[in-house]
Amino acid sequence: MARLNAHLGKRQLKALQEKLEEDSSRIKENFLLKKREYSESRVEHKDDVDAANDTILITTNMRFTNREANYLKKIIKALAKFETDEYGVCEDCGDQISFERLMARPTSEMCIVCKEEAEMEEKHSIHHKQSSSMGRTLSLR
Ligand SMILES: [Zn+2]
Asked: How high is the mean pLDDT of the chain?
């Protein structure tokens, strides 16, 4: 049986997998670094001003860390798909995602058509909500 992602050559898959693994270890290193920075700053600072600065630093770090954590989750999910040959296959329509698109964004889960449709729907649903509530107001009269 042919692989689901047969459009990707073995060497292409390998390149993408390495890219994902590199990203994942970079993020993990960042995490450790931030954790160390955080514990060091707690020991160093004693007065209130420094404590306040600390809070700002931690909040900024947390926001950054959350984004990184989400990306890491995506990477782990993508890497798991290599095992099942589902990597590079659109989650929505099962179409093949091009190598170029995957190289640009190795965590892509959808083909470009589905991605654009999903983004369009997101915009439309806001519109839709507004117009449907307007329709309700009209029918009440
Ligand atoms: Zn698709």
From this structure: 85
